[in-house]
Amino acid sequence: MTRATRATKKTWKLKTLIAASAGACLLAFQAPASAQAAWPDKPVTMVVPYSAGGPTDVVARMLAIPMGKSLGQPVIVENTVGAGGTIAPARVAKAAPNGYTILIHHMGMATAPALYKKLNYDPLKDFEYVGQVLDVPMTLLSRKDFPANNYQELLAYVKANKDKVTLANAGVGAVSQLCGLLFMNQIGVQLTTVPYKGAGPALNDLMGGQVDLLCDQTTQTAPVIKDGNRVKVFGVTTPQRLSSLPNIPTLDEQGLKGFDVRVWHGIYAPKGTPPAVIEKLNAALRAGLQDDMVKHRLAELSSEIVPVEKQTPESLRTHLTAEVAKWGKVIRAAGVQAD
């Protein structure tokens, strides 16, 4: 074999290796794109930080069905309860960033950084944002046989009996705790607080007469209020009355000036979830919020779907950033912090 022939063979082998390497690289880049195009090919799990039957769980289960139809795969709601709603976000933050594990959370996502000394996730760094969902008003309730019959009587009674009155909440970091905290701060009275593992158990004990007061979301309380016999209601926490509960005055109009607490919800995915997957999740969310059953049910619960322009990843990111700053100041000023 001549020297020229050997050189030709070496050149041919080198070209073959280069071509093979290039092909392998191309396949490596094409595989994820192909996988993203096929996503989802199995059920998606939507993690809820609170107990079954609570307000966030109610919203999740309403959205799961139409979102599943849009995605072509079931959306399975899973309750991961504990530590004031911080276990679920930590779990989702550590999940594989493939879109099969997502989180629905309320404004507790913004309050956790100030409430907890040690947090196993960063709401602003460890997630991709899918979109905002809805705003939920709150109501201030008491057990049916509570001595007061209107807000002024309530105010007089709690000031005269502050050591006897109990105020329930759904646990440290829950919106009901924050609403109760703001209420006590604004009227200048500290009551005995009773934390529960979720809003459902707290409301059940209120109706059973085991606790006196509760401030909670209309997704939880509206059906009970409309029933008319199971609790007393002293006011709603929004500046305007609710169209679905028009006879209930606001706390603001009854003298608690500036009292405005509304609960917002958002959907998140682990950091690094591909943009194409986030886009599909967002499209499913928007389709879910247009579902007639969802709109009807949320209206019954006195909840407001956010405008279309807020149903975006960018809007949720901006809103969460502002809420972290806002509630951080409130919580630090009140000196409230959990271990």
Automatic annotation (TrEMBL):
Residues 1-37 form the signal peptide. InterPro entries: BUG, Bug_dom1. Keywords: Signal. It holds the Pfam family TctC. Transmembrane segments: none annotated. The keyword Signal applies. SUPFAM superfamilies: Periplasmic binding protein-like II. Coiled coil: none annotated. Belongs to the UPF0065 (bug) family. This is Tripartite tricarboxylate transporter substrate binding protein BugD. It comes from Variovorax gossypii.
